[in-house]
Amino acid sequence: MGNKIKLIDRLRLGLAVSVAKGVTLIVRSLGLGAASVLPGSIARRIEPRLLRLLSQQVKNGIILIAGTNGKTTTALLLCSILKRQGYRIAHNSTGANLENGLMTALIENADFLGRLDVDYGILEVDENIVPKVLKPLQPRIILCLNLFRDQLDRYGEVDTISKRWTKVISTLPLETVVIPNADDPTLSYLGQQLPQKVLFFGMNEPEQYLEAIPHAVDSIYCPSCGHSLDYQGVYLSHLGDFTCPQCGFSKSQPSLESSEWSQILVGLYNKYNTLAAVTAARELGVDEGIIKETIDNFQAAFGRAEDLVFNNKRVRILLSKNPVGTNETIRVVTQSHDSTTLLVLNDRTPDGTDVSWIWDVDTEKLVERGGTLVVSGDRVYDMALRLRYSQELNQSNLNLIIKEDLAEAIATALQHTPDNETLHILPTYSAMLEVREILTGRKIL
Predict the structure, then answer these.
(1) How far apart are CA 342 and CA 374, in angstroms?
(2) Which CB contacts under 8 angstroms, 24+ apart, belong to 157-165?
(3) pLDDT (tens digit, 9 = 90+) per residue, 371-430?
(4) What b-and-e string marks burial along 217-246, b requiring 16 or more CB atoms within 10 Å of the CB?
(5) Where are the alpha helices (DSSP H) in 138-268?
(6) What is the pLDDT, as a whole number, of residue 216?
(7) Which residue in 153, 307, 354, 405 is the catalytic one?
């Protein structure tokens, strides 16, 4: 970057980074959080071009990971693979995926003069800001994981987002590599429209099909002509094997045989996260032995199938922030032999203020197995009402406990968890941060 920046610009960049690092030190020293957003916000005011000036210093390029679900886990897996290969990585590991969070992650790895010496930048990005950050980031690889309904008070339907993605991605250099989910009709179609190199990932394991298409589906219509798609089977929500009987559009061919790869963590959704990261790692020339070794030794990101021990009880936190994700975490719970579950529903800005999505969740499957369900969070009574309706339909032997105070709810759930079982906690995003603070004594953000 050296000769490309004028002296005045270099000084401004150095000042912005130095101030941001000072803010980080103060915030962390006072125990106010991880300082994953504020430093970038302040630095941006000093140097508005900060994102471009830092990202263009990354030696081998930026890897951008976007989608509704799975960004944090996929980013962490790919980061772990590349680190095991010996690369230096800049990564927004706390999941702060808006512009200020991206800037903070790059600042963290820069020196006080604004010089960045890393091989790759792995940045998970909120799906709604992808069009805003692609130009300054100029990513080498874009991973498109999935598109589901999420926070409809802030975002539009998935078709709106995919059209914006297609428009801006198509303007990037032809050397850009795009890796979409072949099993998502919207993203499969997106990949088929792009002039860049496109590699698809997806499942080819019919034995993993769901018995029926879930209630919470978003894209069962052809993105090309609008006709209803014919599904041979679905793996998760609307992700599956499909064709359009009207225009002939069909699922793209994945570059990997999914059955040949094991997966990280629990839940079929983590098989998708695994396949996405593996596809990117192979494109970067990483040794397959290193990839498989990393998968075998992978540890969960905070709140994403994270296992903890608290008061000698096993606890598993499964982030549940939208219909599709919650249905999948419910599937994990119902496939276990554990009898106690804690659901925590908040409606703050990081969660989305519209909680009507809980009525698209298949809570009946959780209720019909019985056991103990503890409910808490800002919208505790909304969730309790949803479960009561499910209980009326199933007439199950369910012990439903309502606790407004989260700490009390956690204590109650632990009391009802036998010593040989695991307490599953299904929180929305801000609730997950609160749960972890109670269980670990540490804030994330």
Answers:
(1) 5
(2) 157/218, 158/186, 158/218, 158/219, 159/186, 159/219, 159/223, 161/127, 161/128, 162/186, 162/187, 162/189, 162/190, 162/223, 164/130, 164/131, 165/66, 165/127, 165/130, 165/131, 165/190
(3) 999 999 999 999 999 999 998 877 778 999 999 999 999 999 999 999 999 999 999 999
(4) bbbbbbbeeeeebebebbbbbbbbbbebee
(5) 158-169, 185-193
(6) 58
(7) 354
- Which regions of 22-163 does DSSP assign to beta strands (E)? 62-66, 89-91, 120-125, 141-144
Is 354 a residue of the active site?
A: yes
User: Using one digit for the tens of pLDDT, what is the confidence trace for 255-301?
Assistant: 999 999 999 999 999 999 999 999 999 999 999 999 999 999 999 88
Q: Is 225 annotated as a binding residue?
A: yes
Nearest-10 crossing angle of helices 7-29, 99-108:
90
Report helix, strand or coil for 426: strand
Structure tokens, 130: 């992808």
Please state the domain extents for the chain. 7-296, 306-440
Per-residue model confidence (pLDDT) at position 152: 44
For residue 393, what pLDDT is reported?
74
Distance CA 18, CA 148 (A): 39
Structure tokens at 309: 């021990």
Question: What is the DSSP code string of 224-245?
Answer: TT-PBPEEEEEEETTEEEEE-T
Residues 6+ apart with CB under 8 A from 358: 323, 326, 345, 382, 383, 386
CA–CA dist 13, 55 (Å, integer):
12
Tell me, yes or no, if the pTM score tops 0.90: no
**CB-CB contact of 45 with 15 (8 Å):** no
62-66: strand order across its sheet? 89-91, 120-125, 62-66, 141-144, 177-180, 197-198
Nearest to 275 by CA among 145, 404, 80, 95: 145
Q: Which residues of the chain have pLDDT under 50?
A: 1-3, 151-156, 444-445
Q: Find where tokens 């499957």 sit.
A: 365
Asked whether this chain's domains 7-296 and 306-440 adopt the same fold, the reply is no
Fold of 7-296: UDP-N-acetylmuramoyl-L-alanine:D-glutamate ligase (3.40.1190)
- Residue 144 marked in a binding site: no
Alpha-carbon distance of 401 to 412, in angstroms, equals 9
What's the pLDDT at 3? Answer: 39
Per the document, the length of the chain is 445
Please, where are the H alpha helices in 172-287?
185-193, 269-283
Please identify, in words, the CATH class of the domain defined by 306-440.
alpha beta
pLDDT at 151: 46
